[in-house]
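Course assignment 3, question 2. Fill in each field.
Student: A.L.
Task: Predict the tertiary structure for the chain below.
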Amino acid sequence: MVRVLKPVELIVVASEKGRVTVKYPYQEPLVTSDFRGAIRIDASKCIGCGACVKACPPNALELLESPERLVIRYFVGRCIFCWRCVDVCPVKAVVGTREFELATDRVEDLFNYTVHRRAECRECGSGFATRRMVEYVTEKSAVSEYYANECPECRKAKILNAVARRRGGV
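Answer field:
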């Protein structure tokens, strides 16, 4: 007897509440303010520090390095929309969106690239950080201005030489 009444109860409740869904895609979807969608990287703000890559649990963000350039690759197909990258970006270049309509029939459409040119070391000429990162560090810390345009190896060698000279070595 209970099984017969259950559908009747549901019909009564549904008629009292009315329609609770929208006719998607013909109507605007219900997206709450807490909803997390895909991220967007503003290439004009990004300095290429890689903090977002280190914070990404599913490795949806990758750092592709070559001697001339550094590329941040975002694969939305792997993203879990946790927005940790948004939280750690020092220049607020990574922003979260409410975008959720991400389906495509081409895998290439799921990749986004942010390309940076490398800064060249003034001592050895090798590429090390991105140019924007060097500018950012120099702007934030005037003390680093002297060493900002040198790669870590050349900086280390200079410091070791300076220490050796103080101790009466070289």
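Instructor remarks: The chain has a mean pLDDT of 91. Helices lie at 2-17, 51-55, 84-88, 131-140, 152-166.
Grade: pending
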